[in-house]
């Protein structure tokens, strides 16, 4: 999402709908960003290089309300 501040976007989503379940799918490193998003309330963070099975697992977990990232 070019020209978009994802932290502000996530904050606005939670302000609009507090109980939304968000999984971040990003090209940015988990080591740098995952903890920041998890602290905001996001349930998952995956790098775009994640394997398809890992993506399926993350989606399932987030829909169940379980916090997940590839490092979990």
Notes on the protein architecture:
The chain contains 3 helices and 3 strands; from the N terminus they run αβαβαβ. The chain is of the alpha/beta class and 72 residues long. The protein has one domain. The protein is globular and about 30 Å long. The model has no long low-confidence stretch (mean pLDDT 89).
Annotate the secondary structure layout.
Elements: H1 6-16, E1 23-26, H2 30-40, E2 44-47, H3 52-63, E3 68-69
Parallel strand pairs: 1-2, 2-3
**Major β-sheet strand ordering:** 1-2-3
Helix segment count? 3
State the helical fraction. Answer: 40-55%
SSE series: HEHEHE
Distance from N terminus to C terminus (CA atoms, Å) equals 25 Å
The total beta strand count reads: 3
The major β-sheet equals:
3 strands, parallel
**Uncertain regions: pLDDT < 50 for 5+ in a row?**
none
What value does the average pLDDT take? 89
**What's the Cα radius of gyration?**
12 Å
Shape: globular
Content-based structural category: alpha/beta
Beta-strand percentage range: 5-15%
**What is the domain total for the residues?**
1
Provide a brief overview of the structure.
The chain is of the alpha/beta class and 72 residues long.
What keyword list fits this structure?
single chain; 72 residues; alpha/beta; three-stranded parallel β-sheet; 3 helices; globular
